[in-house]
Automatic annotation (TrEMBL):
Residues 89-355 form the Sialidase domain. It comes from Rosistilla carotiformis. This is BNR/Asp-box repeat protein. Pfam families: BNR_2. InterPro entries: Sialidase, Sialidase_sf.
C-alpha cells in the first residue's frame, strides 16, 4: 500500500509493461481536507463500535482496502469489481475520478498478494477527461478466460452523444494489462458493459450490458471466441429499459438480475436455450421498497453449484448490503442476512465478491462522498454451507440491528 495515497498512472493503451516510478502528484488541498475529515469520522466510528464495522452475521467485517487518494483528480473510487486470480492474488478493479457523476472517471486496478490484507495503490489503465472524445468511464465487467487470463472491460461516454467499450487482458494475475479489440461492441454500437465475464458452452466468453443513446434501450449479450482478445456483435436480450445486467451461466441456464431506472427492486431474466428465448419475472428481490437498489450481483456457489447468491444494496438510512440466496431450479429468492452497512455517507454500494476457498468469499464495495473522496472497502465473509435436505422453503430473514 502506498501510504502517501499517490496514484500510479501509466497513460498507454497497451499496458504490456508495468508502470514506472512516476506518479501523478498534483495533490489538492480541498480533497485532502475532505479525506482527512472522512477518515477521522470512520476511525471514530470504529472505535465507538469496539473495532468492528457495522456487520451482521459470519465472517470478517469490511474495511478500507484502497483508501481515497489525496490527489483530487483520482480521489473518488467507485463501482468496484473483484476476482481471484489463478495464483491466489485478489484483483480489484474500479473507477477513479473526481466525483460520482461525470467526474473524469478512469478504470484502475489494485492487487493483493497476501489474501486481501493489503492492496497496491491505484494503477490507472486509461485516462478520460472533459477534453476527450469520451469524457468519463463508468461501469465495469470482469472475469477469467479459459486460458487463465483476467479480462476487464469498461464503458466510457460523453453524455448521450456517444460511448465506447474498452477492454484489457492480464496474463500475469493483474500485474500488467494489454488492450483488446472491442470494435464490434464499441463506438456507440452498445452503451454500457456490466457484471461478469463468463463462459457459455459452444459460445465462448460472454459479457452483458445495457444499451445507451444514441443506440437505444434494452439489454445485450456478446461473445468472444478467443478468450476476450476480440468480440463478436451483440445479441439483444430485451428492448425494455433495464440497466446493469448481472448474468451467469449455471446448470445449462442463463440467469440474470437487472434493475430499472428508479432502482427499487431487482428483476430476473432466464433462458434455458442459451439466449434463443427469455423468461422475465419482475421484482424477484426487493428490500425496503423506498430504498434505491443499484447494481445487482449474482453468482453460483462453486462448492454447491445449484445454490445461487445475490447481493442487494439499499441506499437508505444506514445503507445496507444484504445477502440473498436461491436454488437454481426454482429461483425463489430468500433474504439471508445483512452483510454490512455504511451509515452517514453520501455515496455507497456496488458490492461484488469472489470465491476464495470453502465457505469464504472476498467482498468489496465503496463508500464516501458523491463529490470528493471515496474509498474501496473489502473483507472476507463466510457463507455457511446448506443444511442437508434444505430447499430454502423457509426463509431466514435478515437482521438489522
Amino acid at each position: 500500500m502506498n501510504p502517501s495515497g499517490e496514484v500510479g498512472c501509466f497513460q498507454m493503451d497497451d499496458l504490456s509493461s508495468p508502470p514506472g516510478d512516476w506518479y501523478l502528484l498534483c495533490s489538492q488541498r480541498d480533497c485532502a481536507m475532505k479525506l482527512d475529515i472522512l477518515t477521522r469520522l470512520i476511525v471514530a466510528a470504529v472505535i465507538l463500535m469496539g473495532g468492528q464495522s457495522a456487520v451482521s452475521g459470519e465472517g470478517s467485517p469490511t474495511r478500507i482496502i484502497v483508501p481515497a487518494p489525496k490527489d483530487a483528480r483520482f480521489c473518488h473510487l467507485s463501482w468496484p469489481k473483484v476476482i481471484k486470480a489463478d495464483d491466489g492474488s485478489i484483483v480489484v478493479a474500479y473507477i477513479a475520478g473526481r466525483k460520482h457523476v461525470n467526474g473524469d472517471g478512469c478504470p484502475a486496478v489494485s492487487v493483493s498478494n497476501d489474501g486481501g490484507n493489503s492492496f497496491t495503490s491505484p494503477h490507472v489503465l486509461k485516462t478520460f477527461d472533459s477534453t476527450m472524445r469520451y469524457q468519463h468511464a463508468a461501469n465495469l465487467a470482469i472475469g477469467k478466460a479459459d486460458d487463465g487470463a483476467i479480462v476487464l472491460m469498461a464503458m466510457a461516454f460523453t453524455d448521450d452523444l456517444r460511448n465506447h467499450i474498452y477492454g484489457w487482458r492480464s496474463e500475469d494475475h493483474g500485474k500488467t494489462w494489454k488492450s483488446t479489440d472491442t470494435s464490434e461492441i464499441g463506438d456507440s454500437k452498445t452503451g454500457s458493459v456490466f457484471g461478469h465475464l463468463f463462459q457459455v458452452p459452444a459460445e465462448g466468453l460472454a459479457v452483458c450490458g445495457h444499451y445507451r443513446k444514441p443506440r437505444g434501450e434494452g439489454l445485450w449479450i456478446a461473445y468472444s471466441k478467443d478468450n476476450g482478445k476480440s468480440w463478436g456483435p451483440t445479441k439483444t436480450i430485451t428492448t425494455r429499459k433495464y440497466f446493469e445486467p448481472t448474468f451467469i451461466f449455471s446448470g445449462g441456464r442463463l440467469v440474470g438480475l437487472v434493475r430499472e431506472n428508479s432502482a427499487h427492486a431487482y428483476h430476473q431474466f432466464v433462458s434455458d436455450d442459451r439466449g434463443a428465448s427469455w423468461q422475465f419475472r419482475p421484482s424477484v428481490i426487493q428490500g425496503n421498497e423506498n430504498a434505491v437498489h443499484p447494481s445487482p450481483f449474482l453468482v453460483a456457489d462453486p462448492t454447491q453449484p445449484d445454490r445461487l447468491y445475490a447481493l442487494q444494496t439499499e441506499r437508505i438510512g444506514d445503507n445496507w448490503i444484504n445477502l440473498w440466496q436461491a436454488e437454481r431450479d426454482t429461483l425463489q429468492w430468500q433474504e439471508n442476512r445483512v452483510l454490512t452497512s455504511s451509515p452517514d455517507v453520501e455515496d455507497f454500494g456496488y458490492p461484488w465478491m469472489t470465491h476464495l476457498a470453502g465457505n469464504d468469499w472476498f467482498m468489496v464495495h465503496y463508500a464516501g462522498e458523491k463529490d470528493g473522496p471515496n474509498s474501496i472497502y473489502g473483507g472476507v465473509i463466510t457463507i455457511a454451507p446448506r443444511d442437508k435436505g434444505s430447499d430454502l422453503n423457509t426463509p431466514n430473514p435478515a437482521t438489522r440491528d
